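S.,

As promised, the L-homoserine run. Input:
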Amino acid sequence: MSNSGIKVFAPASVSNLGCGFDILGLALERPGDEIIARFNDLGELRITLITGDRGRLPKSPDQNTVTIAARALLRHLHEEGRGIDFEIHKKMPFESGLGSSAASAVAGVVAVNELLRRPLEKRDLLPFAMQGERMASQAWHADNVAPSLLGGIILIRDNATLDVHRLPCPRGLYLAILHPDVQIPTALSRSRLPDSVSLGGMIEQTGNLGGFIHGLYQSDFDLISRSLQDVVIEPTRSKDIPYYQEIREAALHAGALGCLISGSGPSMFALCVNSLIAEECGEAM
Ligand code: HSE
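Predicted complex:
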């Protein structure tokens, strides 16, 4: 078996997309995380190098999303005795709302699957990547892991059973992402959310969710734009993002279909119909 190793890239992702808390997410083309994995003779998982994290991520295999996810996969495949060294190159900000921990977990399981010559289909790696993500966010939601693994725009009908579906992506969609220089840990951000939603709020949110999905199927950008609203989560989370309303208005004024919080924030995304408008939105934001 070759020991030259394998290099894997897993992209960042934007989850929630306003109206789909915990159940919608899309993969970005870039940035993302890179992992290099190779077998060792020690029979254990090791993290030999982490770059791009300013020394903040744990190297202990019991605490890092990469090795937790990798170990879950190895256990499933009855390959626990395998020794693997991982180099992790973080090429995106973490605690940013761009699915950094999800990307690492995805890269970890894809690397292991490739080293073992693909015993599983990509889609079947999802539950194992989720084990890493759960450790990082202290919750079970696939709206970053699923798009990072599968690409495109993903609907999670049910997180418990990982009933995930790819939605159509109208041609030409671009995102401008603004990453304010603050960090918001997902677990902390989730702990501040309200426990219940009013009936009126539920009706508005589900109407927008249905409208967004229908808009994707029809490539109806006006409908997508009207549906990019969040009456449930945004009121709480936007308070932690400096100049939130001003940034949002700047993006909408520059032609974005919508501008909302990416995942648990602080990053904000503006969805745009082409790259030129996305660039203008990025400037304006
Ligand atoms: N859906 C999750 C949340 C994503 O908003 O808490 C975390 O990135």
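Strands lie at 6-15, 24-40, 45-51, 83-90, 153-158, 163-167, 174-178, 258-261, 268-272. DSSP finds ten helices and nine strands in the chain.

- D.
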